[in-house]
UniProtKB/TrEMBL annotation:
Pfam name, any one: Mannitol_dh
Domain Mannitol dehydrogenase N-terminal: 29-271
Upper taxonomic lineage: Bacteria, Pseudomonadati, Pseudomonadota, Alphaproteobacteria, Sphingomonadales
Protein name, UniProt field: Mannitol dehydrogenase family protein
Domain of life from the UniProt record: Bacteria
Any GO MF annotation of the entry: oxidoreductase activity, acting on the CH-OH group of donors, NAD or NADP as acceptor
Organism, as annotated: Sphingomonas tagetis
Annotated keywords: Oxidoreductase
Length: 471
């Protein structure tokens, strides 16, 4: 089968949407760290829409830790197919990524970061890519940060790379850029900015000062459910496009991107691609992290315990769907300070419908990754608010207890888990009390008996998940 590329774009059937612009005239304007599935499903699709009216925002992807995206996309001139999953799936070929660099290509990455035309540097490197401590500040003892502080000219972490790239822009007398975090962290832009400045402060204080003045780090909320690529998708894409695509991507049709209106210099007109710019992203961010990601992790850990494999399957289990809806409406929604005019009840209803979408097979195992990094933003912040307001913790303790059970099961069966703290989580057979005492995950909650007591009760009750009444 012929491979997707610039040369074969014309062979696509009319039913497949293709870049509505001349790719040869696109100029590079964005450098993106972490061009994985979520970036390609979400931000790269928005830039693809924007390119139809403004060719200055082509994307250079940078994969620091793997060569697989570069190997899949570069032979395809950066092109890939995005499947928008609905009862009727739409296939769209995205052309905004021009090339993908890998971590070994130091000079090319540095040149891209320090190119005069680069005005946005964005990231989807997941929570763990930020190398933060429990207090949300850069962890200077993190092995990747220790290594980069030692050799700042050959960084391995995103933080080290951003600091080096910004130092190079300053050295060349270039203007600052906007560093746009697109990860699922509360206050993502602020945290990234503080981390990069802290790194620069330790290596190059003049650059730290320059960053403070010339570089902006807007907060942003990103949302679109993006199940991992599987062979079924590859086969569907091949059938629909008639071309071989080494790495197609799938997502739900729904997508939302809310960005704080705080840019260094010109801001791309992403409104044309449905993006919302606002002065304050906090409310949107809290609503999404707490009401979508929190319940997602709940469905993952409780659902896996009940033998379910996908979100839609877990939602078809009325006990679990009912529990998650009560958790959202009664326990989480009261903690969300939504923006003015935001219909929280409607938002909850829409999320439940998105979870139940039978056209999407989103694996619970995928969501279960990196629990130690995700739960603090997704559940523990809500728990702190509930404690402060004197609201009950019983339901909020269930996802935490189900995560502890998930670790115990993995330890007992000797199966690996994907988590940067896996070694420590699985030590001592995954003993739940030991995990619950890890302050880098739970902070002061580890010592709050109201919290530990509620988790202990939920943990007991989940001994037999099938028999447990999810109230
Ligand atoms: C999910 C998210 O994998 C996960 O942890 O909760 O990736 C979720 O699908 C996205 O944040 C939706 O925008």
């Amino acid at each position: 089968m012929t491979r997707l590329s610039n040369a074969t774009l014309d062979q696509l059937p009319a039913s497949v949407t293709r870049p509505g612009y001349d790719r040869a005239s696109v100029k590079a304007g964005v450098v993106h760290f972490g061009p994985g599935a979520f970036h390609r499903a979400h931000q790269a699709a928005a830039f693809d829409t924007l390119l139809a009216s403004d060719p200055r925002w082509g994307i250079t992807g940078v994969s620091l830790n793997s060569t697989s995206v570069a190997e899949a996309l570069n032979p395809q001139d950066g092109l890939y197919t995005l499947a928008l999953l609905e009862a009727e799936t739409e296939f769209r070929v995205i052309g905004s990524i021009q090339r993908v660099l890998t971590g070994g290509e130091r000079e090319a990455i540095l040149a891209a970061l320090a190119a005069p035309a680069t005005r946005i540097v964005s990231t989807t490197v997941t929570e763990k890519g930020y190398c933060l401590g429990a207090d949300g500040a850069l962890d200077l003892a993190h092995p990747a940060i220790v290594a980069d502080l030692d050799m700042p000219q050959t960084p391995k972490s995103v933080i080290g790379w951003l600091a080096l790239g910004l130092a190079e822009r300053r050295r060349q007398g270039l203007p600052g850029v906007t560093i746009l975090s697109c990860d699922n962290l509360t206050d993502n832009g602020r945290k990234l900015g503080a981390a990069v400045r802290a790194f620069a402060q330790a290596t190059d204080p003049d650059t730290a000062k320059w960053i403070e003045q010339e570089v902006r780090f807007p907060n942003a909320m990103v949302d679109s459910i993006t199940p991992a690529t599987d062979d079924a998708l590859r086969a569907r894409v091949a059938a629909a496009t008639g071309l071989e695509d080494a790495w197609p991507i799938q997502r739900e049709r729904f997508t939302q991107w809310v960005i704080e209106d705080d840019f260094a210099g010109e801001r791309p007109e992403l409104e044309r691609a449905g993006v919302t710019f606002t002065r304050d992203v906090h409310g949107f961010e809290a609503a999404k992290l707490r009401l979508l990601n929190g319940p997602h992790s709940t469905l993952a850990y409780v659902g896996l315990g009940l033998g379910h494999a996908s979100v839609a399957q877990a939602m078809a289990d009325s006990r679990l769907a009912g529990f998650v809806e009560r958790l959202m409406r009664e326990d989480i929604a009261p903690s969300v300070a939504a923006p003015a005019g935001f219909d929280l009840g409607g938002y909850v209803g829409d999320i439940l419908a998105r979870f139940a979408n039978p056209a999407i097979e989103h694996k619970l195992a995928q969501i279960a990754w990196d629990g130690s990094q995700k739960l603090p933003y997704r559940i523990l912040d809500t728990t702190r608010d509930a404690l402060a307001a004197g609201r009950p913790l019983d339901r909020l303790a269930v996802p935490v207890a189900a995560w502890l059970r998930f670790i115990e099961r993995a330890a007992a069966s000797g199966s690996p888990i994907t988590d940067p703290l896996a070694g420590r989580l699985l030590a001592a057979g995954g003993a739940w009390c030991a995990v619950l005492s890890m302050r880098e995950i739970f902070g002061e909650l580890s010592e709050d008996e109201r919290f530990t007591g509620a988790v202990a009760r939920a943990h007991d009750a989940l001994a037999d998940p099938a028999g447990y009444e999810l109230q």
